[in-house]
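U., I forgot to send this yesterday:
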Amino acid sequence: MPARNPDLHGSVPDKSPVALLMIDVINDMEWEDGEKLFNHALPMAKRLAKLKARARAEKVPIIYVNDNFGKWRSDFRKLIRESLRGKTRGAPVIRLLKPERDDYFVLKPKLSAFFATPLELLLSYLQVKTLILTGVAGNMCILHSAMDAYMRDYNIIIPSDCVASNTLRENEQALAEMKKTLKTTVMPSAKINFSALMRGQLPTSS
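Result:
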């Protein structure tokens, strides 16, 4: 068997210098304090849906990285179905951000999108150098994912209006910390130029 299959058995046809990661957006938010997160996640999801549409138009790969909620038999499509069934708190967010058929998805067992997941291998086959991190929660899973991305030498962009936490203060503190210590580019989603990113032109923080 060769050390590297050039096309990952045909499963990863895309090649792109940039990828959009949507972290924990498939989420029923049915837990204590889930309402606090939902109140910020819903307006965030509306902006993220627009960002995703722009990314798709530029053929930027979309990767959903989602918690398995401690269920080791979790299936991504099943998570979506169960979260939409009935009247779960997070259902309006999920309806806005449901994946398309050609989007990628990765299940994670812990906070970071990289820990014990195939994300790094997927990004390698896609030839990604720049990651746009979005989703929830900014001071938890986004922060830990950004730390691991930084240690792997990825360029990191975080659209400040496409990340949500339980409170605005927690979110702002997390964004400030990532900008300061992880050299993350933090900017409004409307200012992200996907065409330039696809050409390898990186923005500067706002």
